[in-house]
Known about the structure:
heterodimer; A: alpha/beta; Rossmann fold; 2 domains; six-stranded mixed β-sheet; three-stranded antiparallel β-sheet; globular; B: mainly alpha; ABC transporter involved in vitamin B12 uptake, BtuC; 81% helix
Amino acid sequence: MSVHRHEPASPGCAGLCCLRVENLGVDVGGAEILQTVSFHLHCGEITALIGPNGAGKSSLFKAVLGQLPHTGTIEFQRAGGNKTRPLIGYVPQSPAFDRGDPVSVFDFFAAAVSDWPVFLPVPNKLRARVRACLERVHGDGLMDKRMGALSGGELQRVLLALALEPLPHILILDEPLSGVDIDGERQLLDMLDEIRRTYDLSIFLSTHDFATLGQFADKVILLKNTVLRVGSPEEVLSSAEFQAVFHLDLGKGGTR
Amino acid sequence: MGLWNLLMDLLPFEWAGYGFMRTALLAVLVISPLFGLLSTMVVTNRMSFFSDALGHSAFTGIAIGVLCGLAEPMWCAVAFALAFSLLFTYVRCKSHMASDTVIGVFSSTAVALGIFIATLGGGSFTKFNSLLIGDILSVEPGKIALLAAILGVVAVLWVCAFNHLMLSSIHPALADSRGIRVFWQEAVFSAAIAVVVTVSMTWVGLLVINSLLVLPAAAARNLARNLRQYHLFSLLGAVACGVAGLMTSYYIGASAGASITLYLALFFAVTLVFHKRRM
Lengths: 256, 279
C-alpha cells in the first residue's frame, strides 16, 4: 500500500465512504510512538487492529479521535466523494466506574445525549429516547442500574449504545473483548455484525484475541509503531511479519 | 429583608427576636444549599482535597489584600483563589502527575506564602485567627444578597453545565470524543468553588469550610441510586444540618461552623449504616 501525501483520490476509496489515514506520525514527549502509518477504513467493514502492547494502538485511536496531535493526514470522504469531518463513536477501553457513584445508566446516557440537566426530574420523552437507544444493544433492562454495578459485558453494551447515538460514520472500540467472558464476547461480536449490516458504518477495533479474528473481521491491520501488514485475517495471521512480532503461527488451522 | 423580618415575627422562639439571629439564619439558608450543590460535584470529581487547598489559598489572598492595605481584602482573596484554581486545573490537565501530588504542591506553597506575607516585618498572625474559626453571626444583610446572587449563578451554571461536567469527571476521554471541552468544564467548576469558598470563608471558618463541601454529598452518596436522589439528599442534608447547627450554637454557645460540621458528620454516620445494610 503505497500512498502519497495529499494525493487527491486513492484507488482504495473510489466512490465509497472511507476514512483515509496517510503518513500519520505521533510523537509523545520526544518518543516516536507512530510513524508513517497509512491505511483506509471502509463503510460496512470491520477492521481489527492488532499488535503487541505498546505498539501504539491506543495512540492511533486517540489521533483519529483528534485527542492527540499528529503529523500526516486523516481524511474522511462521504459516499458522494465530498470530504467532511466524520462523526466518530468511541467505546473506551474497559473504563473503571466507581462502584459507589450514584450515577445510573439512565443518568449517564441522558447526560451525554441530551441538554436536559439530569439532576432535575426527567421528562418521559427523554426516558423513552434513552430506552430506544439501549434497545439497540438489547440493554433496555439496564436503565436504572448504577454504572458501578454493571458487569464488564453490560458496561460494554451501554458504552456501545452511547457510541451509536448519534449514529456515527466510524465506530472505534478500544479492546472491547478484554474483561468480557466467552458469552459476552459472542454477544458483542454478534451485535457488531448486526450494527455493521443495519447502519452501514465502519467499525475499527483493537483486540488481542486472534482466535476469533477470522470470524468477524474483514480486514486486519498489524501495527507496531508503523503498519507492518494489512489484509484479510488469514493473510495477516499467516504472514512472516505476524510471526516475527508475536513468535506465533496461527495461519493454518490455528484460527478456526 | 422586610419580608424575612415579618416571617420571623411569626416564630414563637426566643432567638427569632434577635436581629443577628435572623440574619444568620437567612445566611445559613443561602450558604447551605450552595455548598450542598457544589458538594455533589466535589465528591464525584474527587476534589475534596482540592477544595481544602483552595481554602488555604483564600487565606493567602486575604493576607496579600491586607498587605496592600485594601479596605475589602476579600476581593483580593477571590482574585487570588481564581488564579490558583485555574493554574491548578491547567497543571492537573497538562502534567502526568497524580492529582493529589499537584494539590499538595499548590496547597503547601499557598499556605507558606500566606504565613510569610502575614508575618512579614514581624507582623502578628493573631489578626487572622477569626478567619480560621469564622463567625456566622457577623454576616451583614448586604453580604447575604451577594451570597444569594452567587447561589443564583451557581444554579444557572448547574442547569447549563452539569451534564458535561459530570461526563468530564467520570470519563474525560469519552467526554472529549463527544465534543465536550473537558479542560474548560473543570476550569469553570473549580473557579466556582474558588469564589464560593473565598466569599463564605469569613462566616464559616477556614478550618471547617471543606467539610461543608464534602460531607453533604458523601452522605447523600450512601443513600442515592441516581443523580436526582443524590442532589435531593445532599441539598436537604446540608440545609437541615445548617439550621440545626446554628440553633445548637445559639443555645449552647459553640461555633456555628463547627456545630454544622458535626451535624453533617452525624448525617454521614447514619447514612453509612443504611449503606452497609443495603449492600
